[in-house]
Amino acid sequence: MKELIQQRLKHISNLDERRMFRKVLEDVYTHIVDYNMDMYDKLEKRIYNEINDPLEKFYIYTTILDRKDVDPISEFFHPILEEETEELFDLSEITEKLNAGESIILTSIFLKCDALTFHEILKSNREYKALIQTDKNKYEVKVILKQTTRYSEEIEKIYHIFQVNGSQWNTINCPYAYRFADVVLHIDIVFGNGETITEITVDLGEYETYKVINHIPVWNIKHITLSDKSFPMPAKDRINFEHIVSIEEEGTENGYMADLGNTDFEYLKRYENNIVIVSHYEKQNNWALVKIENNSNLKDRQKFIYEVLSNKRELGFAGRFASVKSLVIRTKGEIARLMQCYETAKDLTFIDVEILEHYNKIQQTSDCNHFIDENIRVDRFKKVMLIKFEAHNKEDYLMLDKMSFIVSEIQILFPEYHCIGEIV
What distance lies between CA 2 and its chain's CA centroid? Predict the structure, then answer.
């Protein structure tokens, strides 16, 4: 509007009239224009903020850390399994299991290679040389590698926690959890009495360059226990009781959900400074909760040796509206929009999507939500949705995993297809 006024002023040939006209506009009309523009901006922001991202407090970040670098009082990253902060070897347990003919997991290692190479290493099922160092002797043994499952089991538990709490599920972008291998000893060995294992080393031969030891996966999820400080109040249904639990001390910016196994848990309500747990239990209680640390506590992502990955989305108004209303527009443009809203998508460019009867090549992606059962549709009757990408850095060993994450999110929206990703 101001540009239009300036153009009109230039067309007034009489300078006195131009000066008078400009003065009138500057004194009156310009202020009206500024006021209107300011009100339009406020209206736009108010409409935009009316619909919040339902996952705003529930985005999950992951990486791996050396055990010695894990901070026990960290306000962001916590081990997926708290007991793994120290690697302890129980020699009596190892001996007992070996005598019973059982295999024993000596340790776990991270393999810094792409997903296809990792599965090739495991498929070979070959034996590797290992050295068990105790405080008294050295023992040369043969070991095999098996994929670590305990981390993926923890991810599945988080999925069930989301379901129990009625929260929208967003695929966890944690490829590190699937790149650990257990070092398994399955040969009888006799240890001396009173010995203590001090170190275990494994020689992977040609795969030695992939080996990373003494590292564990971490995420911004912490299991906590909070109690309701006041007496429970009867709920509106006159059957259950409302337990008010303050979250001010733990941080109101974080996301909270009830953990599995709480006494008579029914559902949870979230407020600004507290959460309300609705339960049959009529007395004060200690409640097991899951806290998802807010990303404002992640001070510097660049300081981590291994890339920090997340399932965070950057949604505009249309994206937030579609997310809240669970709307899926079945076009290539909508698929492209969905992919581009993820942080991880910065490493990939969407090229095209095809619907196929079958896909006969080696699959480059895997389903990150393999634990979600679908009882309605049968897989063998599904057509294949092939989603093609261009990788910005083909040397990135996590590129296939990043693509798997995005394809897994698309799979949730298009359950009638079997979604597969491919880098072209």
Answer: 47
Query: Is the separation of the CB atoms in 377 and 416 below 8 Å?
Result: yes
**Taking the C-alpha atoms of 80, 82, 88 and 89 in order, what is their torsion angle to the nearest 10 degrees?**
-60
Structure tokens at 93: 């347990």
Q: How many CB atoms are closer than 10 A to CB 135?
A: 10
pLDDT of 299 reads 80
Beta-sheet pairing, 211-212 with 104-111: antiparallel
Contact between 220 and 76 under an 8 Å Cβ cutoff? The reply is yes
Which of 336, 409, 407, 383 shows the shortest CA–CA distance to 115? 407
Give me the mean pLDDT over the 299-308 stretch.
90
The Cα–Cα gap between 137 and 199 comes to: 11
Query: Of the segments 95-99, 246-250, 339-343, which one has the largest average pLDDT value?
Result: 246-250
Beta bridge partners of 216: 65
Distances (CA, A) of 349 to 51, 230, 337: 28, 53, 11
Mean pLDDT of the chain: 87
Q: Are 137 and 198 in contact (CB under 8 A)?
A: no
Tens of pLDDT, residue by residue over 72-86, are 999 999 999 999 888
CA distance 121 to 369: 23
Q: Where are the beta strands (DSSP E) in 161-259?
A: 180-185, 197-203, 211-212, 215-219, 221-227, 233-234, 241-246, 255-258
Q: Answer for the pair 317, 48: CB distance below 8 angstroms, yes or no.
A: yes
Name the more confident of 320 and 10: 10
- Furthest CA-CA distance within the chain: 109
- By the 8 A CB rule, do 111 and 121 touch? yes
